[in-house]
Amino acid sequence: MKKKSAAPRKSHPGGFLQLGWDKLDINKLDLRYNYGNSVVAEFVSDHDHADALRELVQNEYDAGGSRLQVAFGTDELRISGNGSTIDAGGWKRLSVMLGTGQVGRSGRTIAQKVNGIGSKNFGLRSLFLYGDQIYIRSGGLQTVLDFFYGTLQDPEPEPHSKRLPGIEIVVPYRTRKRKGLEPFDVAHELQALESFAADLTPM
Ligand SMILES: Nc1ncnc2c1ncn2[C@@H]1O[C@H](COP(=O)(O)OP(=O)(O)O)[C@@H](O)[C@H]1O
Ligand SMILES: [Mg+2]
């Protein structure tokens, strides 16, 4: 006599097996909203120098600034604007690597910038084109976005920036190729400046 198999097996009309499945209960699990940094790398690789400049100009415009300085130093990119300082909603946006909306079950929701050209909370991350860290200070506070490690949940104090009109951003240049992101050096700087010039030249 043949032994009966333990698991009940039903043959699907299409010929596939239909097995029982006790599905996981999402309400009992510690689910996290995690993703790898290739998502950020992909966003960056869709951007060139002119795109990055456009994002900076848009942000400055949104902050009501009248002056934006973008300076290629010997080993870092330095950006300063004289618009409004970063408000609570802005620091919250900078507390995630990118995006808006709900952050898993953390209870945090990232609101879009209102009345701005930018609203996706992606733009500033185009600065990963130049380096692996984006340091930001404004109105007495500071944060950093690190391509590998992520962001700070809450900004830290930075007293010197209390005297700044708007915001200051520093991106130390990437010195080695990383995960599809190119290093930034003098040759790339020339490319960047040409790209800026082409973008700013009226048609
Ligand atoms: N030049 C700036 N002046 C003041 N705040 C800024 C400036 N640039 C960026 N920010 C703050 O950083 C946030 C993130 O910028 P960004 O990544 O470009 O996203 P978005 O513009 O879509 O909100 C902005 O929402 C804003 O709060
Ligand atoms: Mg923006």
Keywords:
single chain, 203 residues, alpha+beta, Heat Shock Protein 90, seven-stranded antiparallel β-sheet, two-stranded antiparallel ribbon, 4 helices, 21% helix, binds adenosine-5'-diphosphate, binds magnesium ion
Please explain how this structure is put together.
The structure is a single chain. The chain is α+β, with helices and mostly antiparallel strands and 203 residues long. The protein has one domain (37-198): Heat Shock Protein 90 (2-Layer Sandwich), CATH 3.30.565. Helix content is 21%, strand content 20%. The protein has helices at residues 38-45, 49-62, 88-93, 186-200; strands spanning 10-11, 17-18, 68-72, 76-81, 101-102, 109-110, 133-138, 141-146, 150-151, 156-157, 167-172. The strands form three sheets. Strands 3, 4, 7, 8, 9, 10 and 11 form a seven-stranded antiparallel β-sheet that branches. A two-stranded antiparallel sheet has the order 1-2. It binds adenosine-5'-diphosphate and magnesium ion. Adenosine-5'-diphosphate is lined by residues 55, 59-60, 63, 81, 83-84, 86, 90, 93-94, 113, 116, 118-125, 166-167.
Secondary-structure blueprint of this entry?
Layout: E1 10-11, E2 17-18, H1 38-45, H2 49-62, E3 68-72, E4 76-81, H3 88-93, E5 101-102, E6 109-110, E7 133-138, E8 141-146, E9 150-151, E10 156-157, E11 167-172, H4 186-200
Antiparallel strand pairs: 1-2, 3-4, 4-11, 5-6, 7-8, 7-11, 8-9, 8-10
What does the main sheet amount to? 7 strands, antiparallel
Q: Find the structural class using helix and strand composition.
A: alpha+beta
Quaternary class: single chain
Helix run count: 4
For the record, the CATH architecture stands as 2-Layer Sandwich
What's the SSE pattern? Answer: EEHHEEHEEEEEEEH
How far apart are the termini? 87 Å
Question: What is the name of the CATH topology?
Answer: Heat Shock Protein 90
Radius of gyration, CA atoms, in whole angstroms: 23 Å
How many domain units?
1
Count the beta strands.
11
Helix content: 10-25%
Q: How would you describe the shape?
A: globular
Low-confidence stretches: none
Q: What is the CATH top level name?
A: Alpha Beta
SS strand fraction: 15-25%
Name the average pLDDT: 91
